[in-house]
């Protein structure tokens, strides 16, 4: 997959050379294994990216917790056990960043690609550049990246995310990618629509039920509810709407998830916040299943409106959009994913970003700055 | 308060000079104002230290959230509002560290004294040394400081804390200090003993009730219970023991706290974990009130056993210790605090630590190292 380029050699000759393989330190959060068994969106992205970078000829050192699960040439375990119970807490996050900082000292890499929250704080102490993928809400995280200035280069996972904070040091926009081959394609659908996701007011499954009911089609709901806010929302807004035509099947594992996605007439995704990237939309389309979404966050750029689904402004428009899915082509949905949201597309996007960052470091006057709190 | 020292001047003459004033960047957590109104132990320590350093002639730049509340010559607000509701979360902690890193860039200081969790991650990017006071549990935080190596110098708040991780780069042990004058001294006590602290199994107020009852003396309990674990513990272990001789008065503000402490025959402190420093023991002694404690964490070094209280090994020994407090001198208790646990003693301890760190930086071969993940 590595592309060839012409490069001037000493003595004035020009020669076809294979771009040199990069040595990449890939830093994963410590909360789930890489790849994860179930929950763990960031860890899934990291796993797919690592494997593709390796197959593209690069040398990857993966820093992650738990068992080894990728083809990275070097695996550096940051913690014996994964720390899912402590996701969101300050101390494990900061301890993990310190560990990686220490473990990096004895290694020679070309750049660090960091997927964690606290890791960027250590970027100013390094001579090599740090690329950070913004997996969380940029509204909160902008205040982390802004003071770090040009010592971190950022990757947005959607144009919407990047557009909401245009002043940050963005290097690229690289949508998350999935392993398309691992999702079954189904041309002929069963007679239901699907909600797949957390039972959370921001995911708004109650709007999905109401829309399906108005469209006269059965809806299956699958997802977790573990946090108090999810429980409360489920009890007051979702449970009263359930019935023979609206069935909650609970948390779906990878197998059930794929079966549900592949069989659905469409995925209903009535998102009510600017989620930086909605991976489930991509997974649905990979199965040949169109997506009916509210227009928030990445939805308008993930769904090709009128071809792989419909993105509407108001909840009242969801029912009609569900009906309109009838006339969409499952093959178009899958193609949209292969072209734009596959791990291959993602790895190619990151490789371009890596080379651009390193190129800037080499240009005269383009040296990556070393920020110092004190000169 | 600044001490004079002799210093060799160019030309060989020796002269009495005032040690030069230090420019100190003091970094507080963003969760409570400095000083705090009620809860906020770290912020209280920072406030006392800042004011004493200023009165000792130093220049302090305080980085803190919320309103200005100290005599620091420069106050840099890291956040309009304090973030108590988010204490313990990763994002506000990491964002605060990034902000301080950015704000420090335009300032010239001799050293950074950091009281936060994430701040130490930024130390390797600075030319000036960073001193970190370990306010939390060293068992968890050791894994943060160890990889940072000599780029941070640590201050323990008790010998017990330091002894549990002797291999870390400790610079000094400086116990937390209180403003002794703000605590009322009472020679003659009322007929009760006191438990003051959270209703938490690790603080074990149920042991205090049982001991007081065996000693035949009334006990007053004051403290918060807001977390689920505290509520559960209170319901099952404390509430059943309450009665006419064991009364819970709820959370005590600064005024009530002082009245309760000053009037008590002793403070019962049946701590069951290695708390790095138990400030309430010091506050009690400042009021002339001895302390009866279980031997965990800092208790044996804060309480002068047999003079300002009793430190016992087993809960069964608490009742006898309560009775024995009768023969202790309230004045001895207060003197113990003035000498060892006052803000003056604390500021003097930190000043010595600052000078030692800077001296090391100046010694040939003693340069403070710049850690880099990549050379």
UniProtKB/TrEMBL annotation, chains A, B:
Top-level taxonomic group: Bacteria
Glycosyltransferase subfamily 4-like N-terminal domain sequence ranges: 39-163
SUPFAM superfamilies cross-referenced by the UniProt entry: UDP-Glycosyltransferase/glycogen phosphorylase (SSF53756)
Residue ranges that the Swiss-Prot or TrEMBL entry lists as coiled coil: none
Pfam family, one: Glyco_transf_4
CDD domains, per database record: GT4_AviGT4-like
Domain Glycosyl transferase family, chain residue ranges per copy: 187-329
Record organism: Terrabacter lapilli
Keywords: Glycosyltransferase, Transferase
Protein name (database record): Glycosyltransferase family 4 protein
Lineage: Bacteria, Bacillati, Actinomycetota, Actinomycetes, Micrococcales
């Amino acid at each position: 997959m590595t592309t060839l380029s012409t490069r001037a050699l000493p003595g004035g000759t020009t020669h076809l050379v294979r771009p040199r393989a990069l040595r990449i330190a890939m830093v994963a959060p410590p909360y789930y294994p890489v790849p994860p068994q179930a929950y763990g969106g960031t860890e899934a992205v990291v796993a797919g990216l690592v494997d593709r970078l390796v197959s593209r000829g690069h040398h990857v050192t993966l820093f992650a917790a738990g068992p080894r699960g990728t083809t990275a040439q070097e695996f550096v375990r940051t913690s014996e056990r994964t720390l899912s119970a402590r996701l969101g807490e300050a101390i494990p996050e900061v301890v993990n960043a310190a560990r990686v900082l220490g473990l990096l000292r004895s290694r020679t890499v070309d750049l660090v690609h960091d997927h964690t929250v606290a890791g960027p704080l250590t970027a100013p102490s390094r001579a090599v550049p740090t690329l950070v993928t913004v997996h969380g809400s940029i509204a909160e995280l902008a205040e982390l990246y802004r003071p770090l200035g040009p010592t971190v280069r950022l990757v947005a996972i959607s144009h919407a995310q990047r557009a909401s904070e245009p002043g940050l040091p963005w290097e690229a926009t690289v949508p998350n990618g999935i392993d398309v081959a691992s999702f079954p394609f189904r041309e002929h659908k069963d007679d239901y629509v699907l909600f797949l996701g957390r039972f959370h007011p921001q995911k708004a499954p109650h709007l999905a039920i109401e829309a399906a009911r108005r469209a006269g089609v059965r809806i299956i709901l699958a997802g977790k509810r573990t946090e108090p806010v999810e429980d409360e929302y489920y009890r007051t807004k979702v449970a009263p709407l359930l019935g023979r035509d609206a069935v909650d099947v609970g948390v779906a594992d990878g197998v059930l998830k794929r079966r549900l996605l592949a069989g659905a007439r469409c995925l209903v995704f009535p998102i009510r916040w600017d989620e930086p990237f909605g991976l489930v939309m991509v997974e649905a389309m990979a199965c040949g299943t169109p997506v009916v979404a509210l227009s928030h966050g990445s939805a308008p750029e993930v769904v090709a409106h009128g071809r792989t689904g419909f993105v509407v402004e108001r909840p009242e428009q969801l029912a009609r959009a569900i009906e309109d899915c009838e006339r969409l082509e499952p093959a178009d949905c899958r193609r949209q994913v292969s072209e734009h949201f596959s791990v291959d597309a993602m790895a190619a996007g990151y490789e371009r970003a890596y080379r651009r960052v390193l190129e800037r470091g080499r240009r005269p006057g383009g040296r990556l700055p070393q920020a110092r709190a004190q000169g």
